[in-house]
Design goal:
Structural class of chain A: alpha+beta
Organism (chain A): Mesocricetus auratus (Golden hamster)
CATH architecture of one domain in chain B: 4-Layer Sandwich
Largest interface: A-B, 28 and 25 residues
Number of helices of chain A: 13
Protein name (chain A): Pyruvate dehydrogenase phosphatase regulatory subunit, mitochondrial isoform X2
Keywords (chain A): Pyruvate
Strand content of chain A: 25-35%
CATH class of one domain in chain B: Alpha Beta
Largest sheet of chain A: 6 strands, mixed
InterPro entries (chain A): FAD-dep_OxRdtase (IPR006076), FAD/NAD-bd_sf (IPR036188), FAO_M (IPR032503), GcvT/YgfZ/DmdA (IPR028896), GcvT/YgfZ_C (IPR029043), GcvT_C (IPR013977), GCVT_N (IPR006222), TrmE/GcvT-like (IPR027266)
Oligomer: heterodimer
Structural class of chain B: alpha+beta
Pfam family, one (chain A): DAO
Helix content of chain B: 40-55%
Radius of gyration of chain A: 26 Å
Number of strands of chain B: 15
CATH topology of one domain in chain B: Phosphatase 2c, domain 1
Helix content of chain A: 10-25%
Chain lengths: 607, 597
C-alpha cells in the first residue's frame, strides 16, 4: 500500500475496532488491545518465556476482523509476521515511577501500559529530576509508586485487575468509573450492614467506601448504561442525602482514612511533629489541628488533621491513599529513636462521620458527657463512651465544614455503636450517606482535598490555607523558608472556587475536573475538582488561577485583587459557561432556607 | 431367523432397561416395556402410560421385541416412518447404537411365556393416529444444557499464593443416565493421611446396589491399605478409646452422589476388621508401602467383605436385604491414584482410563492405561481358560460373554458367578421373600461347574507422569462404545487448552494473505463456539458422545432427540455414561522431573 505509506507517518487509531495502524518500513503494522487479554507471569513463570511466545492467530482474529473492516483493501496483502509479545499493565492504567517507600534511593520507572514509547521521554525527564533534585517539576502523584501498597501486589489481584485494565485502553473512560475486579479486599466491619441497606461502593487503596445508598424502591441504570458525562443517575439519591446532612443527621462510614499514632516517652513526638508540620501542634490536650505536611518547597506532601490525645501522643488522620506515602515520609524525617513510636492504626478503628445539626442530639442521648458547644467546641477530641462501648474517640469535625462529629471506634465496637446511633437517630431522621454527598458538601464549603486540589507543588498560601500555617511557632519546620519567601514575593497561582452561572444541570455536560478556566477570555488554569452544590443549586468547581504574562507567557504574581477583578468562564467540552470566582466559601448568600409555611406533615416522617 | 431367536435378542436389548423398584427383574421390566412401542418423546402426546392401554393388551399379541432388530436395519422408519419415528428421522437414518446389555439372562422357557410382552398392533395404529400431524418438538439449547449439566461437578485444587503445588489442577466429572435409575457411580477424594488423590468410575449391572456400595467403600479400603503402621495403630487406638478419629478422606461429591446412612455402621465394622488384620499382619519392618499391592489388596478385600456380609446377613431386615442386593448385583471399577508424578490405575472390568498426551507439535495422542476385561481381550480369554478345566473351554466364554451371560470378565459382587451352587441356594432360601421371589437370583448360570468364574482382582498399571501428560479420562464403557479413544483425547485436549495450543496456525514461510487468514480464523472460531457452552470437560465430552453426527460435529437436532428419548428407550441407544477428566499440572510435574535430574 504505497499510497498509504506516503501519506501517513502518524498512526491511525480505531478505538471502536480496538486497533491501531501505522507505517512500518514501507508496509503496514497493525495491532490493538483486545477484549480478552491473557495475563502472563502471574503464576511465577520464568520470564524468559517472552522469547517463546508463539504467534497466536486465533487470539488476533477479532483485531484482524476490525482491520479488514476498516481497510478492506488489505485483504490481498501478504502477511509478513505476527508478533506476540507481552506488555506491562498496572492496576489503574497509569505507569509507576518514583522512589521506593522501603528502600531509600531505589527509583522505579515501570508499568508503562503499552505507552512506553510515547511517554518515555517525559517519564525519563521527571525521574531524572526526581533523582537529582529530590522532586519532579510537575505533580506526578498519580504515577507515584507510593500510591500502591503491598496489598496491590497480590498475584491474584494483579491477574484479575490487568485483565480489566487492558481492554480499557481503547474504551471510553467516563468520570467516577470504578474498577469491577479486585474488589472487597479491605472493608469496614459494617460492610455487610451497609450493603444490605443499598450501599453502592467505590474503592480507594483497596478499601471499599459507600458512594451513596440506593433506596429500596429505586432502580439505578445497569453498569454499562450508567456511563455518562452528563447528569448521572445518582443525582436525586445524593440530593436527598445532602439535604439530610443539612437538616437532620447522616452517618457516613469513613473507615478508609489512614490513621497513625505517634507517641513518645518524652517530648520527642511533639518536637518531631513540630518540625514536620506547618501548623503549631503545641496545643492543649484534646485540641485538633488541621495542618499540612510540607516539603522543602512548601508544597503539600500530605494534608491532615492531628489530635493531641495527651502530652506525648498524637492521633493523625490523613487521606486513604496516604497510607504508604505518609508512612515513608514520616519514617524518612523522624529521628531514629526507640522512645518515639510511630504506629499505623488504620485497621484498629472504624470511623463514623455523623454530619448534620442533629448529630449533637444523637450523641447526647448515647453518652453522659455534655455535648453542648461550651463543653465540646469544634475541633475538639474527647474519649468517651457511646452506648455500652467505652473508649470511643469523638472529634467535633466532619471534614465538610458542616456541624457534626467523627467517631473513631475500636473495630470490635463498630457494629454496636452503629446500631445504637441508628436506632437513637431514628427520631432525628438519621440515614446513611455516602462519599458523593460528602464531596458535594466539602466542595461547596471550599474544602480543598489532598490528591485532587492539593499536591506537592501547591503551598498553603496558594490555596487559602494560611490558617494552617504558623510561621512564627519558633521552629524551623520543613518548607518554612519557602513559605516565608512566597509570603514576601506573592504567589503565582491561587486556588479559587467557581460557581457556574448559566449551566443547565439537566441538559449540559457536567464539569468533572480538568476543565480549562478562562479569565477575561484568556486561559488561566484548569479545574481540579467539581461537584454540584445542592444548597447553591449550582455547580461548583475548584481550580487554580494563574496570571500568564501577555508578552512571553511567564507566570506572574496572583493577588486577591487579580482574582476578584476578572470575568471567568469554564470551558466544558468546548462550551464556555460563565462563572463567579470566590476566594472564600459562600454560605448564607445563596443558601436556600425552608420557610415556615413550606413545612409539611411529611417532614415529620422518619426517613 | 426364528421367532424365538428374535425374542431372546429383543429381550436382551431391553433386559436392563430399568429394574423397576429396587430389585431388577424381568417381569416388571417387561410389563413396562410397552413403552417401547411408542418411542417418540412423551411430550408429543402419544398416550403411553394412560389407563386406556390395558384395553388393548390382549388383542393381537405381537412382541415388541420383533422390532428392535428392525430398528437397527432402518426398517421401522420405512414401515412406520410417519407413525412413531417421524420425530426421529435422524436417529433412524443413521443406524442407531443399540446398547448391548452387560448381563444377558435367558429365562426358563416357562418363564418366557409368563413375561411375554403385552404390546400389540393396536397400539401402533393408535400411535400413528396421534402422531400423524407432523410437528417438530426439539429441546431448546438451554433445555439440552440443563439435562447435560444436571450432574456436572468440578473440583479445583485450592491455590496458595496463586500457586498450586499439587500435580493435579483439578477435575471435571459428569454422568448421563440411560438406565433409570442410573447404574453408574463415580467417586473422588483426597487422601488426608497420605498424599495423593483417588478418582474412580463404577459401572453397575443388574441394578445399582453394588456400584453404589463400591463407590462409597472402595476408597476407604484403598486409603487404609496405604496407611503406615503407626497411623493404623493411632486410628485403632482412637476408636478403642472413643477419641476423635483422624479424617482419612476428603470427598469431592456432587450433591446427587449420596452415601447410604443405614449401612454406614456395618461398613465401618468391616473396614475396622480389615485394618485390625493389617495391624496384626505387620511384621515390624517399616517397608515402604507398595501402591500397586495396596490397590490389589483393597479391591480383593472389599469384594470379599461384600460376599461375606451377604453370607452372614444382618439382623436388621433392611440391611439384610441391602447386603444381598449388593452381593447379587455387580459393578466394574476403574480407579486412579495420583500422588505427585506417580499415577496408578487399578481396573476391574471394562471401564477405561485414557491419558491425554500432547505431542511437541501440539497434536494429541491417547495412551491407554487400562486393559478391558472382556471377550475382546485375548489375555483375559486365556486366563479364564487356564483357571477352569479343559472341558469347560467352550462354555466358559460363549457369545463373547462369561458363561454366555456376563460381558465384563472381572467385577465386584455378582456372587452368582462366584459362590458355589450350594451356597447360592442356601443364602437365597434363608434370605428375605423378595429374594426368593426373584427369578433372576434363583437362576443358576448354565455350565456352572467350577466356581468362582469371576474375580474383583484389578489389573494395576503404573505410569510416571511427564510434562506432556495433560489429562486423564476415566470413563465407563458408555463413552468408549460411542467414541474412539483418539477422538476422546482430541476433544478433551482441545477443550482444555482452548484451541490455541493444539493446532496453532503459523505463517512461517508460506505466502498467506490477510483475507485468507481471516477466512480461516473465522471458520475456526465458529467451530469453537460449542466449546464455550461448557464449563466442564466431562460435559463437553458427553455432548460430543451423544450429539456427534457422522462428521464429528455436535448436531443439535440429534442431541435433542437423544436426550428426549423416554426412559425405557434410552437404554437401547446408549448406556449410562460417567466421565471424570483429571487435569494435570504440567509445571509441577516438570518441576518434579527437574528435581530428580
Amino acid at each position: 500500500m504505497p499510497v498509504f505509506c506516503q501519506l501517513c507517518w502518524s498512526a491511525i487509531v480505531d478505538a471502536d475496532g480496538r486497533i491501531y495502524i501505522r507505517n512500518w518500513q514501507g508496509g503496514i503494522l497493525s495491532g490493538g488491545f483486545e477484549k480478552n487479554p491473557k495475563p502472563i507471569f502471574t503464576e511465577g513463570k520464568n520470564q524468559l518465556e517472552i522469547q517463546n511466545l508463539r504467534e497466536d492467530w486465533d487470539h488476533f482474529e477479532p483485531l484482524l476482523s476490525s482491520l479488514l473492516r476498516r481497510m478492506p483493501v488489505l485483504e490481498t496483502l501478504e502477511i509478513l509476521k505476527l508478533v506476540n509479545c507481552p506488555e506491562t499493565f498496572t492496576p489503574d492504567m497509569k505507569c509507576i515511577m518514583g522512589e521506593s517507600p522501603v528502600v531509600q534511593g531505589y527509583f522505579v520507572l515501570a508499568g508503562m501500559n503499552s505507552a512506553g514509547l510515547s511517554l518515555g521521554g517525559g517519564a525519563g525527564k521527571f525521574l531524572a529530576e526526581w533523582m537529582v533534585y529530590g522532586y519532579p517539576t510537575e505533580n506526578v502523584w498519580e504515577l507515584d509508586l507510593q500510591r500502591f501498597g503491598a496489598l496491590q501486589s497480590s498475584r491474584t489481584f494483579l491477574r484479575h485487575r490487568v485483565m480489566e485494565v487492558m481492554p480499557l485502553m481503547y474504551d471510553l473512560k467516563v468520570p467516577r468509573w470504578d474498577f469491577q475486579t479486585g474488589r472487597q479486599l479491605r472493608t469496614s466491619p459494617l460492610y455487610d450492614r451497609l450493603d444490605a441497606q443499598g450501599a453502592r461502593w467505590m474503592e480507594k487503596h483497596g478499601f471499599e467506601r459507600p458512594k451513596y445508598f440506593v433506596p429500596p424502591n429505586k432502580d439505578l441504570l445497569a453498569l454499562e448504561q450508567s456511563k455518562t458525562f452528563y447528569k448521572p443517575d445518582w443525582f436525586d439519591i445524593v440530593e436527598s442525602e445532602v439535604k439530610c446532612c443539612k437538616e437532620a443527621v447522616c452517618v457516613i462510614d469513613m473507615s478508609s482514612f489512614t490513621k497513625f499514632e505517634i507517641t513518645s516517652t518524652g517530648d520527642q513526638a511533639l518536637e518531631s511533629l513540630q518540625y514536620l508540620f506547618s501548623n503549631d501542634l503545641d496545643v492543649p490536650v484534646g485540641h485538633i489541628v488541621h495542618t499540612g505536611m510540607l516539603n522543602e518547597c512548601g508544597g503539600y506532601e500530605n494534608d491532615c488533621s492531628i489530635a493531641r490525645l495527651n502530652k506525648r501522643s498524637f492521633f493523625m488522620i490523613s487521606p486513604t491513599d496516604q497510607q504508604v506515602h505518609c508512612w515513608a515520609w514520616l519514617n524518612k524525617y523522624m529521628p531514629k529513636d526507640s522512645n518515639l513510636l510511630l504506629e499505623d492504626v488504620t485497621w484498629k478503628y472504624t470511623a463514623l462521620n455523623l454530619i448534620g445539626p442533629r448529630a449533637v442530639d444523637v450523641l447526647s442521648e448515647l453518652s453522659y458527657a455534655p455535648m453542648t458547644p461550651d463543653h465540646f467546641p469544634t475541633l475538639f477530641c474527647k474519649e468517651m463512651s457511646v452506648g455500652y462501648a467505652n473508649g470511643i474517640r469523638v472529634m467535633s469535625m466532619t471534614h465538610t465544614g458542616e456541624p457534626g462529629f467523627m467517631l473513631y471506634i475500636p473495630i470490635e465496637y463498630a457494629l454496636h455503636v452503629y446500631n445504637e446511633v441508628m436506632s437513637v437517630g431514628q427520631k432525628y431522621g438519621i440515614r446513611n450517606a455516602g462519599y458523593y454527598a460528602l464531596r458535594s458538601l466539602r466542595i461547596e464549603k471550599f474544602f480543598a482535598f489532598w490528591g485532587q486540589d492539593l499536591n506537592t507543588l501547591t503551598t498553603p498560601l496558594e490555596c487559602g490555607g494560611e490558617s494552617r500555617v504558623k510561621l512564627e511557632k519558633g521552629i524551623d519546620f520543613i518548607g518554612r523558608d519557602a513559605l516565608l519567601q512566597q509570603k514576601q514575593n506573592g504567589v503565582y497561582k491561587r486556588l479559587a472556587m467557581f460557581i457556574l452561572d448559566d449551566h443547565d444541570t439537566d441538559l449540559d455536560l457536567w464539569p468533572w475536573w480538568g476543565e480549562p478556566i478562562y479569565r477575561n477570555g484568556k486561559y488561566a488554569g484548569k479545574t481540579t475538582s467539581s461537584a454540584y452544590s445542592y444548597t447553591l443549586e449550582r455547580h461548583v468547581c475548584l481550580g487554580y488561577v494563574h496570571n500568564f504574562s501577555e508578552d512571553n507567557g511567564e507566570e506572574q504574581v496572583v493577588t486577591a485583587d487579580f482574582i476578584n477583578r476578572g470575568e471567568y468562564e469554564i470551558d466544558i467540552a468546548g462550551h464556555r459557561f460563565q462563572a463567579k470566582a470566590k476566594l472564600y466559601p459562600v454560605t448564607s448568600f445563596f443558601t436556600h432556607k425552608r420557610r415556615k409555611d413550606d413545612v409539611e406533615l411529611s417532614d415529620f416522617h422518619g426517613k | 431367523m426364528s421367532i424365538s431367536a428374535l425374542l431372546s435378542m429383543g429381550r436382551c436389548c431391553c433386559r436392563c432397561c430399568c429394574p423397576r423398584g429396587l430389585w431388577m427383574l424381568s417381569a416388571p421390566c417387561c410389563d413396562d416395556r410397552r413403552m417401547c412401542v411408542c418411542p417418540g418423546p412423551r411430550r408429543i402426546g402419544i398416550p403411553v402410560r394412560t389407563s386406556s392401554l390395558p384395553l388393548f393388551s390382549d388383542a393381537m399379541p405381537a412382541p415388541t421385541q420383533l422390532f428392535f432388530p428392525l430398528i437397527r436395519n432402518c426398517e421401522l422408519s420405512r414401515i412406520y416412518g410417519t407413525a412413531c419415528y417421524c420425530h426421529h428421522k435422524h436417529l433412524c437414518c443413521s443406524p442407531p447404537y443399540i446398547a448391548q446389555n452387560r448381563l444377558r439372562y435367558t429365562p426358563h422357557p416357562a418363564y418366557a411365556t409368563f413375561c411375554r410382552p403385552r404390546e400389540n398392533w393396536w397400539q401402533y395404529t393408535q400411535g400413528r393416529r396421534y402422531a400423524s400431524t407432523p410437528q417438530k418438538f426439539y429441546l431448546t439449547p438451554p433445555q439440552v444444557n440443563s439435562i447435560l449439566k444436571a450432574n456436572e461437578y468440578s473440583f479445583k485444587v485450592p491455590e496458595f499464593d496463586g500457586k498450586n503445588v499439587s500435580s493435579i489442577l483439578g477435575f471435571d466429572s459428569n454422568q448421563l443416565p440411560a438406565n433409570a435409575p442410573i447404574e453408574d457411580r463415580r467417586s473422588a477424594a483426597t487422601c488426608l493421611q497420605t498424599r495423593g488423590m483417588l478418582l474412580g468410575v463404577f459401572d453397575g449391572h443388574a441394578g445399582c446396589a453394588c456400584s453404589q456400595a463400591v463407590s462409597e467403600r472402595l476408597f476407604y479400603y484403598i486409603a487404609v491399605s496405604l496407611l503406615p503402621h503407626e497411623t493404623l495403630l493411632e486410628i485403632e487406638n482412637a476408636v478403642e478409646s472413643g477419641r476423635a478419629l483422624l479424617p482419612i478422606l476428603q470427598w469431592h461429591k456432587h450433591p446427587n452422589d449420596y452415601f447410604s446412612k443405614e449401612a454406614s455402621k456395618l461398613y465401618f465394622n468391616s473396614l475396622r476388621t480389615y485394618w485390625q488384620e493389617l495391624i496384626d499382619l505387620n511384621t515390624g519392618e517399616s517397608a515402604d508401602i507398595d501402591v500397586k499391592e495396596a490397590l490389589i489388596n483393597a479391591f480383593k478385600r472389599l469384594d470379599n467383605d461384600i460376599s461375606l456380609e451377604a453370607q452372614v446377613g444382618d439382623p436388621n431386615s433392611f440391611l439384610n436385604y441391602l447386603v444381598l442386593r449388593v452381593a447379587f448385583s455387580g459393578a466394574t471399577a476403574c480407579v486412579a491414584h495420583v500422588d505427585g508424578v506417580d499415577l496408578h490405575v487399578a481396573n476391574t472390568g471394562d471401564s477405561r482410563a485414557m491419558l491425554g498426551v500432547q505431542e511437541e507439535d501440539g497434536s494429541w495422542s491417547a495412551v491407554t492405561l487400562s486393559n478391558d476385561h472382556n471377550a475382546q481381550n485375548e489375555r483375559e480369554l486365556e486366563r479364564l481358560k487356564l483357571e477352569h478345566p479343559k472341558n469347560e473351554a467352550k462354555s466358559v466364554v460363549k457369545q463373547d460373554r462369561l458363561l454366555g451371560l456376563l460381558m465384563p470378565f472381572r467385577a465386584f459382587g455378582d456372587v452368582k458367578f462366584k459362590w458355589s451352587i450350594d451356597l447360592q441356594k442356601r443364602v437365597i432360601e434363608s434370605g428375605p421373600d423378595q429374594l426368593n421371589d426373584n427369578e433372576y437370583t434363583k437362576f443358576i448360570p448354565p455350565n456352572y461347574h467350577t466356581p468362582p468364574y469371576l474375580t474383583a482382582e484389578p489389573e494395576v498399571t503404573y505410569h510416571r507422569l511427564r510434562p506432556q501428560d495433560k489429562f486423564l479420562v476415566l470413563a465407563t464403557d458408555g463413552l468408549w462404545e460411542t467414541m474412539h479413544r483418539q477422538d476422546v483425547v482430541r476433544i478433551v485436549g482441545e477443550y482444555l487448552t482452548g484451541m490455541h495450543q493444539q493446532q496453532p496456525i503459523a505463517v512461517g514461510g508460506y505466502k498467506v494473505t490477510l483475507g485468507q487468514m481471516h477466512g480461516l480464523l473465522t471458520e475456526r472460531r465458529a467451530k469453537m463456539s460449542s466449546v464455550f457452552e461448557d464449563q466442564n470437560a466431562a460435559t463437553h465430552l458427553i455432548r460430543h458422545a451423544v450429539g456427534n453426527n457422522e462428521f464429528g460435529a455436535v448436531d443439535h437436532e440429534r442431541l435433542s432427540k437423544m436426550l428426549s428419548l423416554p426412559e425405557e428407550l434410552a437404554r437401547m441407544y446408549r448406556d449410562d455414561i460417567t466421565i471424570i477428566v483429571v487435569q494435570f499440572n504440567s509445571h509441577v510435574v516438570g518441576a518434579y522431573q527437574n528435581q530428580e535430574q
